[in-house]
Amino acid sequence: MSILPYCIVDEFAEIHPPAFGVREATIHDLSAAGLRCFYSEMDGMPTAETVREDALQFHEFVHAAFAQGTVIPFRFVTLLESEDELEAFLRRKAEAYVPALERLEGTVQFEMRISNKSPEQVEETATEDSRERQAALHDAAAALQQAAGDLALGWHTRNDEEHARCYGLVRRDSAQALREKLSKVALPPEIRVVMSGPWPPSEFVDVQAQQA
Fold first, then answer.
1. For the CA atoms of 77, 79, 85, 86, what is the dihedral angle to 10 degrees?
2. pTM
């Protein structure tokens, strides 16, 4: 039987998540070095028949905890061999995670996925066209960041050839205000922005939880 960790919180955070997780398994918690991790037991990796439902239940649990406070989620599916391995992980990450949880307390993140066109519409084009598309993505990302203004406590942008992803950190009680500001940004008609959130502020943790 393996250990399926869901998320990490401050050891003393007042978070009371559901009693059951993936496949109705009982939720346990383990504390070490100022951190607390919620987990359940799982008999091996999900199968093709169960992975979708397992992932849904996993994310429902994480969001139930996130609704009550700041969490650092694990990536689904991360499996550890034992509670001893989980405790060692918490102790190894405590130096980064304890101050991160304190710094990110009361915050959430939004993700903005920016594209020029859907992948089905992208055809091979000249290098100049590619540069123009990347410039358009860069300009759109910059416009969103400028619109966020002082509401954004942090901002990250990641680019590739056809997409840009922006991550905005905001106080939980300002989440709706940020969403409204960003939804009103005027962008060229060929630019498409898909906004999602609020989510746990994973992009603003120095070390990612899934790096076990």
1. 40
2. 0.84
